[in-house]
Amino acid sequence: MAKVEQKGHTLSRERLVDFLRELLLIRRFEEKVEERFRAGDLSGFLHVSLGQEAIAVGVCRALDGSDVVASTHRAHAHALALGMHPNELMAELYGKVEGCSRGYGGSMHLYDVARGLIGSNAVVGGGLPSITGSALAFKLRGEPRVAVAFLGDGATNIGTFHESLNLAQLWGVPAVFVCENNGYAESTPAWQQLPITDLAKRAVAFGMHSITVDGQDVEAVYHAAQRAMKHARDGKGPVFLLANTHRLTGHYVGDPQVYRSREELREARETQDPLEKLRARLELPGEEWDELEHEVAVLVQASVDFALNGTDPRPEDALENVYA
Amino acid sequence: MAKVEQKGHTLSRERLVDFLRELLLIRRFEEKVEERFRAGDLSGFLHVSLGQEAIAVGVCRALDGSDVVASTHRAHAHALALGMHPNELMAELYGKVEGCSRGYGGSMHLYDVARGLIGSNAVVGGGLPSITGSALAFKLRGEPRVAVAFLGDGATNIGTFHESLNLAQLWGVPAVFVCENNGYAESTPAWQQLPITDLAKRAVAFGMHSITVDGQDVEAVYHAAQRAMKHARDGKGPVFLLANTHRLTGHYVGDPQVYRSREELREARETQDPLEKLRARLELPGEEWDELEHEVAVLVQASVDFALNGTDPRPEDALENVYA
Amino acid sequence: MVTMTYREAVRDAMAQAMRADPDVFVMGEDIAEMGGSMGVTQGMLEEFGPERVRNTPISEMAIVGAGIGAAMQGMRPIVEIMYEDFTTLAMEQIVNQAAKHRYMSGGQLSVPLTIRTQGGAGWSPGAQHAQQVEAWFCHVPGLKVVYPSTPADARALLWSSIYDDNCVLFFEHRLLYPLKGEVPDELEPLELGSARVHREGEDVTVVAIGRLVHEALKAAEAAEAEGISVEVLDPRTLLPLDEDALVRSVRKTSRCVVAHEAVVRMGFGAEIAAVVQERAFDHLDAPVERVGAKFCPVPFAPVMEQWVVPHMEDVLAAIRRTVGRE
Amino acid sequence: MVTMTYREAVRDAMAQAMRADPDVFVMGEDIAEMGGSMGVTQGMLEEFGPERVRNTPISEMAIVGAGIGAAMQGMRPIVEIMYEDFTTLAMEQIVNQAAKHRYMSGGQLSVPLTIRTQGGAGWSPGAQHAQQVEAWFCHVPGLKVVYPSTPADARALLWSSIYDDNCVLFFEHRLLYPLKGEVPDELEPLELGSARVHREGEDVTVVAIGRLVHEALKAAEAAEAEGISVEVLDPRTLLPLDEDALVRSVRKTSRCVVAHEAVVRMGFGAEIAAVVQERAFDHLDAPVERVGAKFCPVPFAPVMEQWVVPHMEDVLAAIRRTVGRE
Ligand SMILES: Cc1ncc(C[n+]2csc(CCOP(=O)(O)OP(=O)(O)O)c2C)c(N)n1
Ligand SMILES: Cc1ncc(C[n+]2csc(CCOP(=O)(O)OP(=O)(O)O)c2C)c(N)n1
Ligand SMILES: [Mg+2]
Ligand SMILES: [Mg+2]
User: Quick one: which of A182, A204, A178 has its CA closest to A193?
Assistant: First the structure.
């Protein structure tokens, strides 16, 4: 059932540099979000993906243009990896009309239907049933599309997880459930919230095909995701894709992390950074890296400028979009 | 993980005759319920346990007096096997003050707290979390008690099942979840509602100990249940006890069963009757059987008389018991 | 005009939509071979096959949520929740997902999902199979709530619900299924949000929904014999609410009774009373009287159950109270 | 008297009960090391240990249901649901189980469970973290619903909720946590079902709950400057409801405004309006005015969010409208 993906070095250097650029964009974007939050620019509830970028990039690069994705409260990386422009994302965090959800959604409610993002969700597990349902629609219509849900390890404890995967398997719909297993649900470590250590066992309850992969290795994630998408697209049923990863920051921006030791965090940052891993593997010359950094920094800074220059909704716009 | 219990012939003949008497009591009681419903005596929604009696008897005989049980919509057998007097049960079905729930509950809401029955439940899966919680209370208080939930195969599809078993395992509480796997949820056969055939796999998702047993063999059920209770009582954590069985009648009393063939039903009735199996094994002389029949018939008829002579609640009693 | 039962009317709306449109399908527990626990979908499996008449596992969250997903992809699913008591299990999907995706996406997505459910007391099923919970959903912006009381309304409103681009909660009452009534030969859609005046009158307006519409009509007849002229109005769509129709009626009659089977406290009647007292304040000659179930879960024993839920007599008593005031 | 915040008051009630009674314990997501997402349970792990301050998986149904089970066995669990938006996930356990076991058992069982939750807008968390849903639970016989607005009430009412033998839904408002107030040195229990008059007045009664109590008090001051004397009444317990107190007040003032943060339609204010118009009909000089959120999900963008939920100005406008009528 559960097979750990071996690192394969089959992608071209060019492709991997492209992955690295995307990882870096997410990293710097998220750091900018932290910075802007601390500066008091941003309101609401923000969850960044530092350390988990490789899953977003590896999975989203394995998608077809017509596939759809449901994300979680930790959604920025998925949105960017799906090709959302940083401007649109940052504008949303600033509550501007130019934002991807036109200011109605916010960090936990990113939408970009044109690019397949059918909603990130602030309710843990809340988006899973709609992925089963989207995949059902694809199956009923005979469309070769896959519906993908991201979820955390904590989300495997909630009833919607069980019902959604169970139904997906029963009906053999083209869905892929990507579990970003970072070992924490907010402050709660795995041992306090999960009765098992190998989360691939969750899939056994449904007889669902599962694949386990090192979530810090973007290439491995990409290959695993490709296999998962193919399985689903070929009509072989849904897949549970388990990506083990590390959250290299707090649960939310501003989290003092009283519940984990500085050492644990430091060690993870030093040994589990997906960017550093890929950079090391590519043996990227300092110059090339600096170029990437520059390129990304420009984009990220531009997104802040774009957002700051964005349009506030009128208060009474709040009454729009309630009904179709 | 899943071990099919072998039939053991270790119980005394006397003990087995006692089991047989109980099986017969349930059988004749349930048949009487069907009869009284058809006669128009009973209102509401009735689900009888014809064919599944051995699970109720085998499990309840393995309990300690201080254990607690949550039952389902198909609850009569559990109540009787727990020692509820047929009078109290029948009076409840007739909506009388003398009923086990004083007429407030009805067939799907049987309570007998003194004997450990903390409620049967008309919501599929609805009673499971409270069994995890009852078991938690026993653990917190250091009481050597076990909390037992009955559930159907259909109930393994609902979120409460997942959450309750998961939590029970995480906290290692003394709970036993008894799955009466009769291959149907109302009209829906297993293949239309379950993505797996071996329901023991459900327990794998939680790392829960599971035992599979032939639910038509009361002695096997008894032994398996004893082991399950011991496991839980000894502090080794919860158990998923899977009893494969057959529903030898409709889902509810009056069900025309358009969804299954007469042959399937006839064959099951001929080959899967737990009473006939035990009777055959005991090679019970006709005389002894007739005696049991007589004994049980008297009890069952008396319960109807008792119920008919029972007291109707006053309408305004409806406003009692809403709050403590 | 043809005569059909409420049950047939519901079925006919679904079947006609499914014949016309491959994007419409139904799913729910035991709706296929068995035709649903209330027989509403009987015969549909035979006509439309198992892909479009889908039996589901017992997974209320997932089936509502799967409906949401399919609706997001442009289909028009109809999900049946066997008893409205079990909408409690799907509450998160209904309230946080179906009702809000359009809004949270700034208008990018729609969820044209219809959730049919049924319930009601009167046959002694006990406390977990007999509640009326329509009021909850009227508190949720983004949802529509429909509760028809006649075959004609059921058919027309269900069609309109299926073709509404929002999530519609469609409530049916178990005891109404065998009710016969005339329906137009051709299915004519009915705008969601328009009330029906079932009977005109001068002295009191009775606003009633579901089963209570029929109790109100009986009460109106009895009142007429006493010289009280009663107007009976059924909002049919509880959200959006046709406030104008009810305010117009009460401004005419100056008195109002509101009746439903759900418990009075925080029931739909509270909203009606609040709207009427606000918008017809200067016209009211008596307080709005509320009729509903007494404040307890629905008990099993038939004698208690019958006493708890309201009947014609309760509506009549309220009518008398309201005209008794000066 | 001592001064403490609303947050500390909630914590103190729990801690005192846990010190006094081994049957009281708390469970919920992230309540242990982290002290809860709102910091309410901070320090409790250290004092009471992980068996009695239990972190749970993300399983709202199971943790409410586990609370029900432990309560059935005679314990007095306190379950924290992180945001009231997530009570939707536990709705079945709350409505069909906790509220009904006592009734369905004919009085054999009790479920002395307290479910604490919090919510509210004003910090831009978006549509799934900012709803106010207290009204739903007021429609459910067998439940009690409490919503304190001050530290003193929070502490006393939480204690009484823990020791109530029924399931109590205890609502806290996120923006009230830092609010400071005087509380008695000794914890004095407060009967569930008694309203508090925060401020006496002659011209209008404002019935307000939660955060809106404070907006109402500010509005009352502003109104006073305009020569309008406002009485502010907080029911505190929404179910059971202290009808007598509010009817008494409105009979005196002849005018009533009701204010909460939830959307107006089918909100708690509908019940207040219905009760007041019924029981104070002859005293009312103007319709009961309802103040609440506008009819939409709570939007993210702060400019829209602030406009959607009601503030002091909205209460003041309603006061002016009601005295403006003759
Ligand atoms: C149903 C529900 N319960 C609780 C929360 C509060 N909450 C937000 S994120 C989170 C932890 C999620 O953990 P996990 O699924 O592992 O995702 P991660 O944050 O680690 O990416 C919790 C409990 C929620 N949003 N929804
Ligand atoms: C949550 C919920 N959904 C649907 C129903 C309607 N219903 C009652 S019994 C039943 C089938 C239960 O199947 P299973 O768990 O296998 O038990 P069995 O009837 O076979 O004993 C269903 C769907 C219900 N009672 N509760
Ligand atoms: Mg996690
Ligand atoms: Mg079954």
Answer: A182
Domain with C268, as residue range(s), is 196-322
Question: Stretch D282-288: mean pLDDT, rounded?
Answer: 98
Q: Can you give the pLDDT at residue B57?
A: 98
CB contacts, 8 Å: D106 with chain B: 99, 101-105, 111, 321
Confidence of residue D55 (pLDDT cuts 50, 70, 90): very high
Task: With respect to residue C106, please indicate whether it lies within any of the assigned structural domains.
Answer: yes
Whether residue B161 and residue A162 make contact (CB cut-off 8 A), yes or no, is yes
- Please identify every residue whose CB atom is under 5 Å from ligand 4, which is an ion: B 152-154, 182, 184
For the annotated catalytic residues of D, the residue numbers are: 60, 129
Q: How far apart are the first and last CA of chain D?
A: 44
Query: Between these two residues, C326 and C83, which has the higher pLDDT value?
Result: C83
The answer to whether residue C279 sits within a structural domain is yes
**Helix ranges, A1-82 (H):** 13-38, 53-60, 76-81
Maximum alpha-carbon separation in chain C: 62
* Surface-to-core class of residue A207, CB atoms within 10 Å of its CB (0-12 exposed, 13-18 middle, 19+ buried): middle
CB C226 within 8 A of CB C191: no
**Mean pLDDT across the stretch B296-310?**
98
Q: State in Å: Cα B181 to ligand 4 middle.
A: 6
Segment A299-309 mean pLDDT:
98
Q: Check if B255 has its Cβ closer than 6 Å to any atom of ligand 2.
A: no
Please name each of the domains of chain A with its CATH number. 13-310 (3.40.50.970)
Q: How far apart are CA C256 and CA C276, in angstroms?
A: 8
C101, C129, C173, C260: the catalytic one is: C129
Q: Whose CA is nearest to atom 8 of ligand 2?
A: B124
Contacts of A128 in chain C (CB under 8 A): 65
Q: Which of residues 94-153 of A touch D (CB under 8 A)?
A: 95-96, 101, 103-109, 121-126
User: What does the pLDDT read at residue B10?
Assistant: 86
Same domain, C101 and C17: yes
Does residue B203 carry a pLDDT above 90? yes
Share of chain C above pLDDT 90, in %: 99
The answer to whether C198 is a known catalytic residue is no
Q: What is the pLDDT of residue C148?
A: 98
Distances (CA, A) of D151 to D2, D179, D181: 11, 7, 6
Q: Which residues pair with C256 in a beta bridge?
A: C205
Q: Give the nearest chain C residue to A97 (CA atoms).
A: C106
Among B164, B185, B188, which Cα is nearest to B240's?
B164
In chain B, which residue's Cα lies nearest the Cα of D110? B324
> What single-letter DSSP state applies at residue A165?
H
d(CA D100, CA B101): 12
* D218 and D246 part of one domain: yes
Ligand 4: centre distance to CA B210 (Å)? 18
